[in-house]
Amino acid sequence: MRFEELGRILRDLDPAAVLVAKPVLARVVQRVTGLSWALWEVPHSHCFVVDRFTLFKHVDPDELHLPSDHSLPPHVLLLERPTPEELSGPRDDLLGRYWRLLFHASVHRELGQRLTELTPAALRERIEAIGPAEFEEVRNVLQQDGHLAPGADDRDTYFEFAAYFLELRFFNPALIPVSFPGLAPDPVGAALAGDVDGRGLFLRTRPPGAPDPDPRTDDQSDESHDFYHKLTRQARRASTAGDTVAAAILHTRAARVAPAALTVLAQEAARADIYALVDRLERALEPARAEAENWRRVLPSLLDKADQGSRPVEAAILYDLQRACRDHEEPVYALDAAEWVLSAGRLPVRRPLDSERFV
Q1: DSSP three-state, residue 125
Q2: What is the DSSP letter of 182?
Q3: Fewer beta carbons within 10 Å, N or C terminal of the chain?
Q4: Whole-number pLDDT of residue 325
Q5: C-alpha atoms less than 13 angstroms from C-alpha of 217 in its C-beta half-sphere
Q6: Residue 165 in contact with residue 192, Cβ under 8 Å?
């Protein structure tokens, strides 16, 4: 498919839909939200809703690649431009991807228009309907998966959750319990129905010729497969950085979405991370051999709940143990500039506090 054809299909569905290059979209997201360029990846970098006046403050009209006679509505839906490989790939896959992007952005726009006068009390009612603990889990998941900026407030979190949850519900419901294990999908869907017409948007944003979504089971889903590899990469980075517990928890999450052939491999990787934590505890606390064996038997069982919900107690226990290891592994120093000056530089300015390890 040609880029111009895809752009025309999307504009026929919604005159607000505009395909822009990824750097342009990232620039708009960062300048509108005030995010730092130091972020490794811009959250929500595949689609974004912005008002027309603000858009033209940050982009040149030529960067939008629109026909000269096309007039943009007050609110614009920016969608990431497809790569040449995507354009040359299967037409059904391309139309399916942009159906999802257009749907997601349309949910954001509808929420913004319907809830312009959303009060803190009304927002709190919506959070209570989801569940306060579940809402914090939602915030953590969205931030970890790159859908929400760090420090986002409750309103932004609710909007992004509604868009992402409804996208999964209509396009791949098998991933809802994977992404949000603490949520009950039906009550949440009923709570969101009062704010946004998900079914209506699903039908209105469908490109002509786009195939029906084909939700598969977790062990068949390509999307689940990609999510598995994403979690595995994050676990490896955490392990390299010395965060053994985070690596174990991420491997546990990966095991839940892994294709059948990779489930056992992910579970074994999680146990290996826990055993590495036990090795660190042995060096730090020098326990009796029987006690260390008890840790090897008991601590892996905490992983079953450590990756679920917001700050589960099982994860807190593992992180407390890891902090004890770090206290042993990382020397503690005191800075004594006065003693260094009085000794004319003969004594070190940084004095190790070896007794702190024992404490």
Answers
A1: helix
A2: T
A3: C
A4: 85
A5: 3
A6: yes
